[in-house]
């Protein structure tokens, strides 16, 4: 992850819940499913949160494996979080990581440890203050 500050701009007009998200010259949509009044043209905000954690985890593991010349072919990460009405101060995200490649058991264990070094994992594992103005 870069040392530059991460920023995002979100725009939402009267188009139901489809939100336009801009960051670093890139563009995606977030939305809600049709049964919640959205257009279902993008991932839900919760799915985007999980996608951030999953992609950061995969990138962190890949960087480490490449640097250490570990024969890691693929990384698959499945994530889940509780339903919105079950969110508490101790909400749990489950993360299942699978590797393919010619790995020793020591390398496999080390890669699982490296997963927790991902910057988004660190961010989500600490108290977060959100300042709104």
What pattern of helices and strands is seen along the backbone? EEEHEEHH
Low-confidence spans: pLDDT under 50, at least 5 residues? none
Integer-rounded radius of gyration: 17 Å
- Morphology call: elongated
What is the CATH topology descriptor of the largest domain? GMP Synthetase, Chain A, domain 3
**Largest β sheet strand count, sense and barrel closure:** 3 strands, antiparallel
What would you give as the CATH superfamily of the largest domain?
K homology (KH) domain
Q: Number of helix segments?
A: 3
Task: Tell how many strands the DSSP assignment holds.
Answer: 5
- Architecture of the largest domain, according to CATH? 2-Layer Sandwich
Give the strand order, joined by hyphens, for the main sheet.
1-2-3
Rounded to the nearest angstrom, the distance between the terminal CA atoms is: 27 Å
CATH secondary-structure class of the largest domain = Alpha Beta
Helix content: 25-40%
Strand content of the residues, in percent? 15-25%
Q: Any idea how many domains?
A: 2
Structural class estimated from helices and strands: alpha+beta
Average pLDDT figure: 92
